[in-house]
């Protein structure tokens, strides 16, 4: 019999090639999790993540689950994992779930935040986590453009994903907030295509610079052509902040 654990992982993705395991020369978050769990469990352990993050993307909410052949108290397991993981990866939550819980297929929504710093001098304390855009942006035009991204649409113009993959996605929230010298985009939906959020934000930046008109966004969607949309915003500004499972994570053994 195995025990199914759910963990929430915070990580600085700067030095990693995203979540998903690749070849040995490319460090990933999943590979690090598998490595340390092998030390703890004395065998290879499959780790399922809620999302495939791009290289350089960060997390304060990525959820994963794995089955261990030994019973370990969640607090003890959390301490053991954090003692073995690199310092830029931390397990912030750990709990025992029933066998049906799956971090990937059980997720009902994911929330990403993209940060842009607009001042002239960016502090070294933020440069790994926010894109520096030190030139004026038309914030009114950007706000007009933002409303066009909400709803169920074909996001072919905003992805570099496999052409055979379905491009229909629903964005439940696409908010833009300006505070002092920082612009924050909050994007929420059930699932996202490859580079989709970064392409949406990059297009917003191009709207702010006057390269794309806010009124042109519907035509860009209709074109279903990646070349019609704006730039791909760099990964470092993007953080996965929350993954939701509905009804407080159904399957928790404590309920």
Structure in words:
It is a single chain. The protein has 255 residues and is α+β, with helices and mostly antiparallel strands. It folds into 2 domains: 104 residues, 2-Layer Sandwich (Alpha-Beta Plaits); 133 residues, Alpha-Beta Plaits, CATH 3.30.70. The protein is built from 5 helices and 10 strands.
CATH superfamily of the largest domain: Pseudouridine synthase I, catalytic domain, C-terminal subdomain
CATH domain fold name of the largest domain: Alpha-Beta Plaits
Q: Write down the overall mean pLDDT.
A: 93
**Based on CA inertia axes, which overall geometry fits?**
globular
User: How many domains comprise the coordinates?
Assistant: 2
Helix content: 10-25%
Cα Rg: 19 Å
In CATH's first tier, which class of the largest domain applies?
A: Alpha Beta
Order of helices and strands: EHEEHEEEHEEEHHE
